[in-house]
Design brief:
Layout: E1 3-12, H1 23-32, E2 37-40, E3 59-68, E4 71-76, H2 92-101, E5 105-108, E6 136-141, H3 149-163, E7 169-173, E8 188-194, H4 199-207, E9 211-214, E10 218-222, E11 232-233, E12 236-245, H5 247-252, E13 258-267, E14 270-275, E15 279-284, E16 289-298, E17 301-309, E18 312-314
Parallel strand pairs: 1-2, 2-3, 5-6, 6-7, 11-18
Antiparallel strand pairs: 1-8, 3-4, 4-5, 8-9, 9-17, 10-12, 12-15, 13-14, 13-16, 16-17, 16-18
This protein binds zinc ion (2 copies).
The site of one zinc ion (ZN) has 5 residues, from loops.
Amino acid sequence: MNKKWYPCELHCHTVHSDGDFTVERLISTAKERKLSGIFLTDHNTMSGYEQTQNEKELCIVKGIEWTTYFGHMLVIDCDSYVDWRDAVPDNIDEKIADVKEKRGIVGIAHPFQLGTPVCTGGHWDFRVKKWENVSYMEIFSEGSPYINTLNLKARRLWHSLLTQGYRIAPTMGRDWHRETKNIYKSACTYLLIDGEITAGKMKKAVEEGRTLVTNGIFMSFNDKNGKTAGDTFEAGETVLRISTDLSRHRELEPEREIRAEKFVLCSSEGEREYPFGDTLTFTAKENEWYSLELWGSTDGRENTLLCLAAPFYTK
Ligand SMILES: [Zn+2]
Ligand SMILES: [Zn+2]
């Protein structure tokens, strides 16, 4: 099969909760942004999904944002309803297990958002013990991603979970409620999909950790065996072939310059810098995770994280 990265937005609201978008307007705006798919995640309701049934071009996955006093949790494509109203810090593992049993997947929304009173319950205070049941985490959320210190905190939490052996996909969540100027237009999550995109394949890409988070620049990479984000590599001398692409960004936001300057390879041992180019050579350890990042400048900011890929792993 032919694998391709598709630009998607995985956190969207409409007038069915507190968004300003009607469902139609959300769909048309997503298409204007050259997105291939969205997760529809209104607060505590899925009532907007019915109105998406006639949409043929944009792929739409049914989801809900559990909006509680203890955190916001994205629940995607459950076979049947799971009641969110009794979710509290000490039973969250059971609630998540219930979602998994109904073939849904779970993501942590904006884990370090300022909570009450700025945004009720927006800070993640649920006490998850079974992180193996969490599929993804918003490493970058709203605002101008990559420059927000709350986002860098989320990245640190995510790295520590990877080091503990959990496989969690990174995502970018626009937390899209309305047109806002302060969110970069070309920022999105790319999903790696076999053949044509479908709602089922979007869910699978997140579940399998085939994601790429970007503020506009696209990056793809593979080793000599064609392996990439989400795959298991051989340990030892590794050459990554890397390519970047700004075409979608230039179409959407030609006024914002993005300049790639270096790669950073993260693992349980920390972060190592490499010069920007079309290859990166390093020695991969056994039983390790590696997440490739691209750093550079944009929007008048130097030394900024531009793009990061879901990890690949070694045996
Ligand atoms: Zn939220
Ligand atoms: Zn939200």
